[in-house]
Amino acid sequence: MTNKLHFRGHNDDNVLMSSLKYPSLMLYSLPSFQSIVLGLNRSDYMWEQKDGHTSLKQIEINTFAAAAGGVAARMPDVHRHILKVAGQLEESQRIIDNNPPVGLAKALAKAWKLYGSRQAVVMFLVEENQINILDQRIVENELLKGNIATIRMRFEDVSASGNLDKDKRLFVDCQEVAVVYFRNGYMPRHYKSEKAWDARLMMECSLAVKCPDISTHLAGTKKVQQVLAKPGVLEHFFPDQPQVVEQVRATFAGLYTLDMGAEGDETVAMALATPDRFVLKPQREGGGNNIYGQEICEVLGKVKSSAERMAYILMDKIQPVPTRNCLLRRGKPLKISSCLSELGFFGAYVRQDMLMNDCVGYLMRTKSSEYLDGGVASGYAVLDNPLLF
C-alpha cells in the first residue's frame, strides 16, 4: 500500500503543486519522454508504546537512493552464526530470511527489459568516494547474473561524456543508458557545479528510465509526507477503501504544517510551548538533519515570522519501546545498554500498468537510546535483525 500511495502521490498534480515551491515546480513541469516509472524505496518505522498499546509509526519514506538493502541481506547469517556459537540453536532458527537485493535487482531488470535495447546498460549514478559501495555492488552482481551490464558514473562523467540523440536516448561514454539508478544527488552538496545540475536535467529529459524520476524524488520530501497525512488525502487516493485508509493512517504520527497562515502559526506556538514533544524536520535527506528539544525553539525563534519556516515540518516525537541489547561498533567497548530499533521495509514497483509492486525485504537498525539521531554510516547505529517469538 505504501508503494501505491507514493506512486499515486507522485502522479497527482494537486498534491505536488500544493506542496512545492517555484524551483521544484519548474523541474516538475518538464515534459516526460518516458512512461515507465521505476520506484525503489524504503519506508522506515519505529515501535511506539502508548496507553498500553504497541504500534508501528512511520518515521519517513525514502524514495531516493534507499540504501543498505545489499548489506542487510548478509545480517541473518551473521546473527544465526553468533547464536549457534553461543549455543542458542533454537533462537538461531527464529531469524527470518532477508534478501532485498534480489527484489531490487528484479525491478531494475524489469525496467531495463521494458526499455527494449539489449545493448543498453543500467547506470549507477554515484559519488566520487562512495562509502557504501559494497551495498551497491551486491545489487550490481544480481543484475550481472541476468546478463545485464552496469556502469558507474558521477555527475562529472555524465556532464563530460553524456549526450542525447534526436530520439532523446541517453548516451554516456558512448554507451546507451536504459536505466539511471541514482545513488547520489539527494543532497544540495552533491551538485558541486552548474554542470552537475545540467547533467541531472539532461538525464531527466532523456528516454532512460530514472530511479527516481523527479516526481518520485519530490514525492518523498518531508512536506509531501505531511500533506499525505491531511484529512481527506488518503480518501482521495483510496476511494471506497475505508479499511485501507484506516490501516495506513494508523501508521502516521502527528504531522503539522508550518505554512504561513493561522494553521502554521498554531504549529509554531505548539512547538515553542512544548518542544520536547516534537521533532522539527527540514527538507533534507541523508540523516542527521532533524532538530530536537531546545534547539527547536532556537530555530523557530529565528524564522517563525518569515516564509523560511516553510522549509520545515513538525512531527510528533515517537515514544519508542526500548530493549536491552549489545551493540558492536568500531572503536567502542561492548556493553549491554538500553536500545531503540528502527525497521524499514524495501518496496519495489515498476509501472506502466503496475507490472510489479512488491515488498522485497527489510532493514533493521538499532542504536543506544542515549542518541536522538544518527545512523549506521555516522557510527551511532548498527545493522540488526528481528528475532521472532
Automatic annotation (TrEMBL):
Coiled coil: none annotated. It catalyses: gamma-L-glutamyl-(2S)-2-aminobutanoate + glycine + ATP = ophthalmate + ADP + phosphate + H(+); gamma-L-glutamyl-L-cysteine + glycine + ATP = glutathione + ADP + phosphate + H(+). Its EC number is 6.3.2.3. Its cofactor is Mg(2+). Binds 1 Mg(2+) ion per subunit. It is an enzyme of class 6 (ligase). Mg(2+) binds at residues 60, 62, 285. ATP binds at residues 60, 222, 281-290, 292, 315-318, 342, 367, 373. One of its GO terms (cellular component) is cytosol. Substrate binds at residues 42, 136, 365. Gene3D superfamilies: 3.30.1490.50, 3.30.1490.80, ATP-grasp fold, B domain, Glutathione synthase, substrate-binding domain superfamily, eukaryotic, Glutathione Synthetase, Chain A, domain 3. Catalyzes the production of glutathione from gamma-glutamylcysteine and glycine in an ATP-dependent manner. Glutathione (gamma-glutamylcysteinylglycine, GSH) is the most abundant intracellular thiol in living aerobic cells and is required for numerous processes including the protection of cells against oxidative damage, amino acid transport, the detoxification of foreign compounds, the maintenance of protein sulfhydryl groups in a reduced state and acts as a cofactor for a number of enzymes. Participates in ophthalmate biosynthesis in hepatocytes. Homodimer. This is Glutathione synthetase. It comes from Hippocampus comes.
